[in-house]
Design goal:
The protein has 13 helices and 23 strands. The chain is of the alpha+beta class and 610 residues long. It has three domains: 229 residues, GAF domain (Beta-Lactamase, 2-Layer Sandwich), CATH 3.30.450.40; 228 residues, PPM-type phosphatase domain (Phosphatase 2c, domain 1, 4-Layer Sandwich); 120 residues, Heat Shock Protein 90 (2-Layer Sandwich), CATH 3.30.565.10. It has a six-stranded antiparallel sheet with strand order 5-4-3-8-7-6, with helices on both faces.
Length: 610
């Protein structure tokens, strides 16, 4: 079939019937032109209609490649037999000043195919150029030397016939040593600079074969229009693409690179940007270790799609981490996030769900700020949408948030997600939640009632429920598999803040280790427990807590009512104290201290091998 946009003779010509194509151009059926003589653009109206159709096609492009392809497809074979599009390498973005020499790279070249099926179409085939001519034109890279003929043509901005002396001299520089001989004479080539908003960003070379009628003077105006629309579109696409890349990188760097390894819970996550170019959103998730082997699970969504949304998301995530470090209840965390969102002073609201899981009590406390409800997949395969008060979004102001405490049985999996997973143009939120629940239940059936599905595979299965039209928004997904800590693996005591407390702590720790069959750790644990408890009782005014947890490691936690955190320092030879934390730092696998609303907790971990 004949490509769209080929102009034809006026309607009413004897022996011809005129029909109008979708682009507004008339095409004829019946009598055909003799081979080798494609119909020229003989009327100004033809050119105007062609330029209109071509620029609309170019404007449909979203990214750089689509715009360049639109230019090529619009011009070949309607306007020329071949086109070569060169662009600066690299392309400057916005007000960015290019550095170094001007280098043009051949971005795309289109030529009339060697064979075109026109049987039964009622049109003459377009004449094919000889392989030795147009097929050999063009080199990959071209360096434009200052003051050269090519530099002068590009500086002139306007398209020129390559028969002009300056343009002819520029061809070897653009196309290589053999380029000049490969370009036909007789106004069959137009060199058009591509000028963006601030500078020349490339060049387009339009070519016609020797058997096709040459270009006319008015075709320079056509080439100028094509070049102008293409250059401005390329400029915009490059800027748009760079902004999208920066926003996407900004968002990804604000998401956790790795999820923490927490006692009694396994974690997995996924993040998918929106399918549409540059639709960068504010979806985020986080997992924050808390004192007492607990973990805070957070997922949120800043409304809107822009770099502003991504920046607000980063600020809210940082605020949530700070608030979690204070060990505030979930409803208070959301309250302070709401205040922070109002202080930002931008018209952006956000939804957020904040949960705290305690592996010792097998309970989870959840507060919600307008976010889709979490789904709990039980060990037997039942998927339950948790009843959590929805609350108002963050940023509304003047609202209270409510927290609920629920059972979190061992083997169950909690799924936190953003609305992009369950809502799209094809379905509403609750339909999507029902589909998510069904998907989780079906996946659990594959492993049986006694074995939960692998966590990473479960996340992949959840994302597989998305259809081709379901990626209108970005998606954040956080899955938590509750293993819990059995009561038999926990030892807990209160110690009065007195001089005898360190000795009692050593004896209690030794008995617990003997009961667990971990006598090989007794010496190390007794030494470190004694040092940490000694520091605690020195300043405490209330009973000190001592807790041992046996999981894949042995964890010891000592809590007191003094908020000041201990600092590691190098004790001098004459100091009588100050070596406790030094010993902990040398002997423990990991250690740390966390400030609480009631004081602090100092903890350390040892491997089972000691």
């Amino acid at each position: 079939p004949v490509p769209e946009g080929i102009p034809v003779q006026p309607a009413g010509t004897p022996g011809r019937t005129a029909v109008q194509g979708p682009d507004g151009l008339e095409r004829r059926t019946g009598q055909v032109t003799a081979p080798g003589k494609p119909t020229p653009m003989r009327r100004d109206g033809d050119r105007l209609r062609f330029v209109g159709a071509a620029t609309r096609r170019i404007a449909r492009g979203i990214d750089l490649d689509e715009i360049v392809m639109g230019l090529c497809r619009a011009t070949v074979p309607t306007f020329s037999d071949a086109i070569l599009v060169y662009l600066r390498d690299p392309l400057p973005v916005g007000d960015e000043r290019p550095t170094g020499p001007l280098v043009l790279r051949l971005r795309r070249s289109d030529r009339i195919p060697a064979e075109r099926d026109t049987e039964g179409a009622g049109f003459a085939p377009l004449v094919q150029p000889e392989p030795s001519e147009l097929d050999s034109v063009g080199e990959e890279l071209c360096t434009v030397r200052p003051g050269s003929a090519l530099a002068e043509v590009l500086r002139g901005v306007r398209p020129v016939f390559t028969d002009a002396p300056a343009a002819r001299a520029a061809l070897p520089e653009l196309l290589g040593p053999d380029g000049e001989s490969a370009v036909p004479d007789g106004q069959r080539a137009i060199l058009a600079p591509l000028r963006g908003r601030r500078r020349v960003i490339g060049a387009a070379l339009f070519l016609r074969g020797p058997e096709r009628i040459p270009f006319e003077a008015d075709d320079l105006l056509v080439a100028a229009q094509l070049a102008t629309h293409s250059a401005l579109g390329i400029d915009k696409a490059v800027l748009y693409g760079r902004e999208a890349y920066i926003a996407d990188e900004l968002q990804r760097t604000m998401l956790p690179e790795h999820l923490p390894r927490c006692t009694g819970v396994r974690l997995a996550s996924r993040y998918l940007p929106a399918a549409e170019t540059a639709r960068v959103g504010g979806d985020w998730y986080d997992a924050i270790p808390l004192p007492g082997s607990r973990v805070a699970l957070v997922v949120g969504d800043v409304m809107g799609h822009s770099m502003t949304s991504a920046a607000i998301m980063g600020q809210l995530r940082t605020t949530a981490q700070t608030l979690a470090g204070l060990d505030l209840p979930p409803q208070e965390v959301l309250h302070h996030l709401d205040e922070q969102a109002q202080r930002l002073g931008v018209d952006r609201m956000a939804t957020c769900l904040y949960a705290v899981y305690d592996p010792v009590s097998h309970r989870i406390t959840i507060a919600n700020a307008g976010h889709p409800p979490p789904v709990l997949l039980h060990l037997g395969g039942r998927a339950e949408v948790l009843r959590v008060p929805a609350g108002a979004p963050i940023g509304v102001g003047g609202v209270d948030f409510e927290a609920v405490e629920l059972d979190a049985p061992a083997g169950a999996t909690l799924l936190l997600y953003t609305d992009g997973l369950v809502e799209s143009r094809l379905r509403d939120v609750w339909t999507g939640i029902d589909q998510l629940r069904d998907k989780l239940a079906a996946t659990a059936q594959l492993t049986g009632p006694d074995h939960p599905p692998p966590l990473e595979a479960l996340c992949d299965e959840v994302l597989d429920m998305l259809g081709p039209g379901d990626r209108d928004d970005d998606i954040a997904l956080l899955a938590a598999r509750f293993d819990g800590i059995a009561p038999s693996d926990v030892a807990y005591w209160f110690l009065e803040p007195e001089d005898a407390a360190p000795g009692r702590a050593r004896r209690l720790a030794r008995r617990a280790l003997s009961r667990w069959g971990m006598e090989e750790l007794s010496d190390s644990v007794e030494l470190l427990v004694s040092e940490v408890v000694t520091n605690a009782v020195r300043y405490a005014t209330r009973p000190v807590t001592l807790r041992l947890l046996r999981t894949d490691v042995l964890r010891c936690e000592v809590g007191d009512d003094v908020p000041q955190l201990p600092r590691l320092r190098q004790a001098r030879a004459t100091d009588e104290g100050g070596r406790g934390l030094y010993l902990v730092n040398r002997m423990a696998r990991r250690w740390g201290a966390t400030r609480l609303s009631t004081g602090k907790v100092v903890w350390f971990e040892l491997n089972h091998t000691g």
